[in-house]
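So, can you check what follows?
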Amino acid sequence: MLRTVEAVIDEQGQVRLLESVMLSAARRALVTIFEEMPSTSLHELTLLSEQALAEDWNRPEEDAAWSHLQHPRQRWPAVGRWYSH
């Protein structure tokens, strides 16, 4: 199984993983070195991508593809609110 783990490499080439990794044996790894440190946090990146994802996900084709996972909605007669069962 492939797994991606964020790391930082210092000027001397020492790799420091940003999370702990437990393995049953030694493993090979590939390291991709980016030109500079990211200037935005993961939370900021998530917010920045929200609009682009919404444009793709908020389409009738997507609603149809996922409709089998949605519960039918019914109107609660006494208060006029929606509920799912």
User: Anything to note?
Assistant: Residues 42-57 form the longest helix (16 residues). The chain has two helices and four strands. Strands lie at 7-9, 15-17, 73-75, 82-84. The chain has a mean pLDDT of 78.
